[in-house]
Structures are given as C-alpha cells and as structure tokens.
Design goal:
Blueprint (H helix, E strand, L loop, with lengths): L1 H16 L1 H18 L2 H11 L2 H45 L1
Length: about 100
C-alpha cells in the first residue's frame, strides 16, 4: 500500500508543480478576485500587503486560521460529535431492518 500512496502523492505533487496547473491556478485566482473587487480596490489591497501590517498579516494568517479551526474543532468535538455518533447508530439500526 505504501508504494501506491507514495506514487499517488508524487503524481499529485508533479501535477500541481506543473506550469499548466500554476497557470490554471493563477487564472482562477484572477477571476475570483476580479469578480469581487474593482481594479482600484485590487490596487489598494496590493498596496496594503506591501505595508508592514500587510506583511505581518501574510505571515500570521495561517497561524490565525489554524487557531480558529482548532477552537472550532474542539467545540465540534464536544457538541457535534455526539450527535453525529448518535445519528450513525440510528442509521445503522435502520439499515438492518
């Protein structure tokens, strides 16, 4: 199984590192941002990211998002997981009928 997983990982890595995938990603990003922001707004966003606050945001953003996600998962573990487990048990009972 390990060689299969490694092969799949290599195929995915090679694909996403390809020039075609990078171009497709850039095109999708351009389309997504240009559909939500005007050219002037995009220039302002770029200008912000060149400031020290913008640079700090870029450096810290992943950490912030991960922290929020971790907190949300902790909350989900306490309230959502028991409900999902109960639903799975209920589904299992109904599937046996």
């Amino acid at each position: 199984m390990k060689p299969y997983v490694e092969r799949q990982r290599k195929l995915a890595s090679d694909y996403f590192a390809s020039a075609a995938a990078k171009q497709q990603f850039q095109s999708a990003i351009n389309k997504a941002y240009s559909s939500q922001f005007s050219t002037d707004e995009l220039k302002q966003i770029v200008a912000f990211y060149k400031t020290s606050a913008g640079q700090k945001l870029m450096k810290q953003q992943a950490k912030i998002v991960n922290g929020v996600a971790t907190e949300m998962l902790k909350s989900a573990d306490k309230s959502l997981l028991p409900k999902m487990q109960a639903a799975a048990v209920e589904y299992g009972k109904s599937a046996r009928k």
